Amino acid sequence: MAYGTIVGGAMASAAVKTSPSWVTACGKAAPLISSGVFLSPVPTVQNIIKEKSVGNLPLLPYSSMCVNSLMWMTYGILKKDSKVWFPNAFGLFCGLNYFYQFQKYCPKNASNLPGTISQHIQYSIALVVSALVAAAVLKTQSAAELIGKLGVVLCVILFASPLAALKSVIETESAKSIPLPFTLTCILNCFLWTVYGFDMGDFNIYFPNLLGLLSSLAQLGLIILYGNGKGQQLPI
User: Fold this and answer.
1) What is the DSSP string of 6-55?
2) Helix, strand, or coil here: 230?
3) 114 compared with 158, residue with greater pLDDT
4) More confident: 123 or 76
5) Does the bond joining 114 to the residue before it have cis omega, within 30 degrees of 0?
6) Residue 126 backbone phi and psi in degrees, to 5
7) Helix (H, G, I), strand (E, B) or coil at 112
8) In which region does residue 227 sit, left (phi positive, over 0), alpha (psi from -120 to 50) or beta (all else)?
9) pLDDT at position 154
10) 168 vs 57, more confident
């Protein structure tokens, strides 16, 4: 979980426990790799700008990145933990930039993103407003718990979002719509947090990351199986 597990990792690390050195290394490396998840869409977005077209790419990875980052940034502020809100502020900045570039070159009547651009904006605003209202009216601890749980759900959506193009991949026999850099970074990130989460016995860490790992491996399998289409190399 690129954003949510930064929260879980920070809380779990407070527990005094002797772990194998390789597990400890996973815990230390995971927050750094999380930053890589924020930056992994850069090659894909650069290609969108170069071709002035989004092709069959889904918008969901970028809209979910925006909302997810804002959720965990809010959580970090409520917890007064700069290790949480600061990296997610960076993720929010990246997500907003990716979203802007995508919608700039996406047909206005596109409805396979999944849904439309306006629907992504409407749902995102609804989630953001809900989080901000919760932060304003609930007690700090209650608001943090609610926003944290919602963040876990959004993390799973973020990791699975490239599979929104699954139908197109199978129909065209091309995995060009699944960004390889994002997939590889998610595999490493989810693996590190899954190992660490199981070691700490923290459901909020290992569960979404295990699902994210399985989803990312499924995406990699589609890339290996189909590549960019018949007779073409993997989309590196």
Assistant:
1) HHHHHHHTTS-----HHHHHHHHHHHHHHHHHHHTTHHHHHHHHHHT--T
2) coil
3) 114
4) 123
5) yes
6) -60, -45
7) strand
8) left
9) 78
10) 57
